[in-house]
């Protein structure tokens, strides 16, 4: 958690470390604060520090430093629906790797997933504690609240069903005591009634889970401007996934790393030009 104290063109930024010890950093009149705590942490810290909806902050007895009604709004995540198949023979998994960061893991379950990229549904972030930054905030993504997202999920789940009915997938089936062959699922199986939209919609809602692609809360054009400055506060920028209006179609890790590099170089150039 941090808070600012302004005096004669200078800022004292008060923050606490992982051990709960408080520190002060002096920021000059040309200095800046860069907040990069992620799609969950950045809006949470802004709210705790008094940057947010005036009515909401006042209801929590948090002093309003800067009125900004869109902090914590437009929270979104790429929803995922998947099936887990129990595999009855050894096989070589091919887990995804992102910019050589993730490590491979041996599995005995095959997971097949579909996701809705660029969801139109969004929710909000609220504080669970008005004083404690370590308290996990309350986040609602409201998956499939927009009918377009739900319609895309129905199409995606049906594609999974089409794939499961191919000859290539037959080798993953088990033979039951009655001689019939079928898949063994860990968790929910695909709905059997493909012709009924409501049945597949219920499946989408009941089996949705996250791809951990959280974004929103400090959107460009809503909370920060095109240079990622919090609008109305020239000395504060937010540079992370909380500013994204929409995510790339895959894991945003590499995009976020390049955003940090881009903004670092841009700010360095701006400082040199101002000298």
From TrEMBL:
* Glucose-methanol-choline oxidoreductase N-terminal domain ranges (all copies): 38-52
The record lists the catalysed reaction(s) as:
(R)-mandelonitrile = benzaldehyde + hydrogen cyanide
**One Pfam family named in its UniProt record:** GMC_oxred_N
User: According to the UniProt entry, what is the EC number of this protein?
Assistant: 4.1.2.10
Family matches, as InterPro entries: FAD/NAD-bd_sf (IPR036188), GMC_Oxidoreductase-Related (IPR051871), GMC_OxRdtase_N (IPR000172), GMC_OxRtase_C (IPR007867)
Transmembrane region(s): none
Q: Name one GO molecular function term.
A: mandelonitrile lyase activity
Family matches, as PROSITE patterns: GMC_OXRED_2 (PS00624)
What domain of life is recorded for the organism?
Eukaryota
Q: Which UniProt keywords apply?
A: Disulfide bond, FAD, Flavoprotein, Lyase, Signal
> Which SUPFAM superfamilies does this chain map to?
FAD-linked reductases, C-terminal domain, FAD/NAD(P)-binding domain
Q: Which cofactor does it need?
A: FAD
Quaternary assembly: Monomer.
Checking PANTHER family in the record gives: GLUCOSE-METHANOL-CHOLINE OXIDOREDUCTASE N-TERMINAL DOMAIN-CONTAINING PROTEIN, OSJNBA0019K04.7 PROTEIN
Identify this protein by name. (R)-mandelonitrile lyase
- Native organism taxonomy: Eukaryota, Viridiplantae, Streptophyta, Embryophyta, Tracheophyta
